[in-house]
Specification:
The protein is an alpha/beta fold and about 200 residues long. α2 links the parallel β2 and β3. α2 packs antiparallel against α8 and α4 packs parallel to α6. About 40% of the residues are buried. It has a single domain, classed as Rossmann fold (3-Layer(aba) Sandwich), CATH 3.40.50.620. It is built from eight helices and six strands; from the N terminus they run βαβαβααβααββαα.
């Protein structure tokens, strides 16, 4: 029997993607010996406010951020589906696209601690393993249900903070990849009151 590819799945709005996302994905990839981490920009997450940047901009920034790293890729399954993004649908779609892969879903430890409140939690657990990553300055709750927690080195940045900094003209270099800084500048994203 052939060995299954070990595929990490990192879903998020990535509004914008930042170095904290990349550090978390890299840390999990190495800690679990994953072959690849696939970033999946969400169309709309039911438990979060609507994204500020369009799906096209968020996809472009995510692609720029992972460009050149053979261990990272980007999937458009959620954006192609449209509507509300539920992890169970994402994992079902990726299972169909990658029948040769064992999936590991990566999320914040705080998020996976609420797994029982996600859509179809029993099915979720059959589609993938779950890993919660710690966030600097946040206490990691016990995720339960056999979820593994991976400690991520301190990259204390959030997409909300990046958007706020852009809106007031503060620098974001060293918080997001250079190509993403240039993209945000070129497309004038997150300026004014829309951050």
């Amino acid at each position: 029997m052939p060995t299954l590819r070990r595929l990490g799945v990192f879903g998020g709005t990535f509004d914008p993607i930042h170095l904290g996302h990349l550090a978390a994905a890299d840390e999990v990839r190495h800690a679990l010996g994953l072959d690849e981490v696939v970033f999946v920009p969400a169309h709309a997450q039911p438990l979060k406010p609507a994204p500020v940047a369009s799906p096209e901009h968020r996809l472009a920034m995510t692609r720029l951020a992972v460009e050149g790293d053979a261990g990272f890729s980007v999937s458009t399954v959620d954006l192609d589906r449209g509507g509300a993004t539920y992890t169970v649908d994402t994992l079902a779609d990726l299972t169909a696209l990658h029948p040769d892969a064992e999936l590991t879903f990566i999320a914040g430890a705080d998020a996976v601690a609420t797994l029982d409140r996600w859509k179809d939690p029993e099915r979720l657990m059959t589609l993938a393993r779950f890993v919660g990553v710690t966030r600097p300055g946040h206490e990691a709750p016990d995720p339960g249900r056999g979820v593994r927690v991976v400690d991520v080195p301190g990259v204390a940045v959030s997409s909300t903070e990046v958007r706020r900094r852009v809106s007031v003209g503060a620098p974001i270099r060293y918080l997001v990849p250079d190509a993403v800084v240039e993209y945000i500048d070129r497309h004038r994203l997150y300026l004014g009151g829309n951050a």
